[in-house]
Amino acid sequence: MSEYYPLSETTKAALLSLFQHKKIKKNDYLLRIGEVPKHYYFINHGLLAYYFIASNGDSIIKKFFAEHSLVASTSAVIQETPSQFAIVALEDCDYIQFPAAKFRALFDTHHDLAMFQLRYLEKNWVVAKENLEISLKYDTAKERYLRFLEEYKAIQNRIKQHHIASFLGITPTQLSRIRKELSL
Q: How far apart are the first and last CA of the chain?
């Protein structure tokens, strides 16, 4: 968290009192579509996918989360509404869970934590989302795949091909063709 904004010892102590260590098995859910999220999660070990179901029934992965990532259905947490997204474990995971309401309540008395949240959201949701939106509208599938390889190079070998295709907004067959073309 200190990478985004330095936290005082008082703030760290307040946070630690909220943390619960948990584990989840591969293919289990931290959050299902339609549930009102009550927690934020920090991934110690493992890999998760954050996805929604399109009107045609396809699963569309918006983001992958690996070690040292904060995970939540952020807009649903903020609005206290049912999530349009699910969070599923792609591997067995070890994580820290903390209640969103109590975490957010700390912002009133811990300015440094509020600044952390602001900086985190700016970098990981505003800036990243803007780049993704541009890429999805203007880049070819091949360009999106090359960007994926760069952005997720540390974990790409841990992600199944159909998950990568879902993230890229293409079919697994299209992904196979792109991979074959790039290996020539």
A: 42
